Amino acid sequence: MTLINQLQLLHQRIFQIIETALNGWFLGLVARLVFGSVLFFLFFNAGLGKLGEGFFGLFSPSAGAYAQVVPHIAEAVVYDTSKIAFFPWTIIVIAGTIAEIVLPITILTGLFTRVSSLAFIGVIAVMTFVDITLHGVGAETIGAFFDQQHNAEISDQRLLWIFPLLYLIIKGPGKISLDYVLSKVWANRSA
């Protein structure tokens, strides 16, 4: 056996051991931790910031919530939220607020992970649409795919935001998740 063949066999053995040891739990956990580190507080705090005052603040979003989600509507009524129609504008703002608070929790804990990740990609898509069409961000902020700039806030950042979510949709959250625990509980109940 040649030296090259021995090195190739050693390479295969080492990475087979690593792959076997990490299979089923590591990448799902890492994808959720990356999401948590990069996006959890950004969106969770944004959702909390959209709540109105008092116990029922979710159902009476702040003026800032309308300014972020539907700025053209908020501007049209000079940020007087009592003049904004409940349907569809307040419903849209409430749905966005709930998504920004609930989805980061479910993704980080690994609860309904695939559906939550898919929904969160929808949140990112809506956020991107609002930023480009309603907030009128410039071309430098939007950026472009496969250009020489690596730090555009929309095309580059949000592409990286979506990657761990795509992984979670396709492969699931792994064994260290509430989804896994619940699947074991449901399997034991049906057995």
Describe this structure in words.
The protein is built from nine helices and no strands. The protein has one domain. With 191 residues, it is mainly α. Helix 6 packs antiparallel against helix 8. The protein is flat, with a radius of gyration of 22 Å. The longest helix is centred in the N-terminal third of the chain and has 24 residues.
Question: Could you give a quick summary of the protein structure above?
Answer:
The chain is mainly α and 191 residues long.
Strand-helix topology:
Layout: H1 3-22, H2 26-49, H3 63-69, H4 71-76, H5 86-109, H6 113-134, H7 139-142, H8 155-171, H9 178-190
Helix pairs in contact: 2-5, 2-8, 5-6, 6-8
> Oligomeric status of the shown chains?
single chain
Distance between the termini: 52 Å
Task: Name the structural class.
Answer: mainly alpha
Radius of gyration: 22 Å
Number of strands: 0
Shape: flat
Strand coverage percent: under 5%
**Major pleated sheet:** none
Mean pLDDT: 95
Order of helices and strands: HHHHHHHHH
The number of helical runs is 9
Low-confidence regions: none
Helix content: over 70%
The domain count comes to 1
Characteristic key phrases:
single chain; 191 residues; mainly alpha; 72% helix; flat
